[in-house]
Specification:
- Strands 1, 2, 3, 4, 5, 6, 7, 8, 9 and 10 form a ten-stranded parallel sheet that branches.
- 3% of the residues lie in helices and 21% in strands.
- With 190 residues, it is an all-beta fold.
Length: 190
């Protein structure tokens, strides 16, 4: 399928809940204050794009490609990232609310989450190698059979994960985060 190529555009204040963003290849585009909530971004390609102060909650992202895409202060609750196209996938998130979303089985190596709310996010069977969770809230996030090689949790909080059910080579934790690693062992940390 050949997609129209849209380059270098700034799209601001648009409501795409009813009238969808056209399926296209977006390169070096900026989306500001746009509402995609429960809308459709499926089967599109975004390269070197930035989304700032947008609402993408429960948006359909099936088969969408994100290559060097930055999300700033976006509301992305309930987003299903497990259906996105993994080819050349590279994203970063700053001060976003991704609560109740899922990255189930997705390879998001090297992704940066900075100051994000990730409550209840499903990371089951995902590859989080070298992911950075900087100042992130991971309360009730699910980690099971997750690859956490070199993953940095040093300033994250609220996580509970069992080292027995996850691969955690060289993962980084603060001393304050040990409780989240040892909770399943019913021990008391003082």
């Amino acid at each position: 399928m050949n997609l129209e190529c849209i380059e270098g555009r700034t799209i601001s204040g648009q409501d795409f809940r009813k009238d969808r963003l056209p399926k296209a290849e977006y390169e070096e585009c900026t989306f500001n204050l746009c509402n995609f909530s429960a809308g459709f971004l499926d089967n599109s390609r975004f390269m070197d794009c930035t989304f700032t102060d947008c609402d993408l909650s429960t948006a359909n992202l099936a088969f969408t490609q994100f290559q060097d895409v930055v999300f700033n202060r976006c509301k992305m609750m309930g987003v299903n990232f497990e259906t996105i196209d993994p080819i050349l996938l590279q994203m970063s998130f700053k001060e976003c609310n991704l609560s109740m979303g899922t990255f189930y089985g997705q390879n998001i190596k090297g992704t940066v989450f900075e100051g994000c709310k990730l409550e209840g996010v499903d990371f089951t069977e995902a590859d989080l190698t070298d992911v950075l969770f900087s100042d992130c809230n991971l309360e009730k996030a699910q980690f099971e059979r997750t690859v956490l090689h070199g993953t940095n949790f040093e300033t994250a909080w609220g996580y509970v994960l069992n080292p027995r059910y996850n691969s955690m080579k060289k993962a980084k934790f603060s001393k304050d985060g040990l409780e989240g690693l040892l909770q399943d062992y019913d021990i008391i940390i003082v």
